[in-house]
Specification:
The chain is of the alpha/beta class and about 170 residues long. It has one domain: 3-Layer(aba) Sandwich (Rossmann fold). The chain has 5 helices and 7 strands; from the N terminus they run E-H-E-H-E-E-H-E-H-E-E-H. The mean pLDDT is about 90.
């Protein structure tokens, strides 16, 4: 089971559901009711070839309030163009790590920029993500891909594994 946190209307949720296939499940969380309605439509798109998508109205800054999520049960968590909306990404990732099983994955997709603007108020460049992931209970995030973006020059995708030793020590 994976969580797409800050899923929006489901662009990355659908991609994740395709990758996971029929045996998977994606808990897609967004705080915008219109986005949640769009996420609910994903159930009908892929038929038997997509992972189950459970659309949830909620705020990823308050994971404890989302009853569909339980600590230690996620195989992975995806933040696609979401962390740049919160001033303290480190705190969000620390809270998220308790929901990801040891050895599970964190995937972050963000714009590769350092200066804030109205659309990316709290940029999270790869170097900053790499620095905060160990403090949040993950191994240092590694950039696995970069792509041009029509909005902010370039985007990156980074992956970090839930640190087994941090999980055992309660971090």
């Amino acid at each position: 089971m994976w969580a797409d946190l800050g899923a929006g209307r489901g662009t990355f949720t659908e991609a994740l559901a395709t990758l996971l296939g029929a045996d998977g499940c994606v808990i897609a969380v967004d705080r915008d009711p219109e986005s949640v309605r769009a996420l609910e439509q994903l159930r009908d798109l892929g038929g038997a070839s997509l992972a189950a998508v459970v659309a949830v109205h909620g705020d990823f800054r308050r994971l404890d309030d989302i009853r569909e999520l339980r600590p230690g049960e996620l195989d992975g968590a995806l933040f696609a163009n979401a962390l740049h909306f919160v001033p303290d990404a480190a705190d969000v990732l620390r809270r998220t790590s308790s929901y990801v099983r040891p050895g599970g994955r964190l995937v972050v997709i963000e714009y590769e920029r350092t200066a804030p603007n109205p659309w990316v108020p709290h940029p999270l460049p790869p170097e900053a993500l790499r620095a905060i992931t160990p403090r949040a209970g993950f191994r240092p995030a590694e950039v696995v891909a970069r792509r041009p973006s029509r909005y902010h020059r370039r985007m990156y995708c980074a992956v970090a594994e839930r640190d087994v030793s941090a999980a055992l020590s309660g971090k």
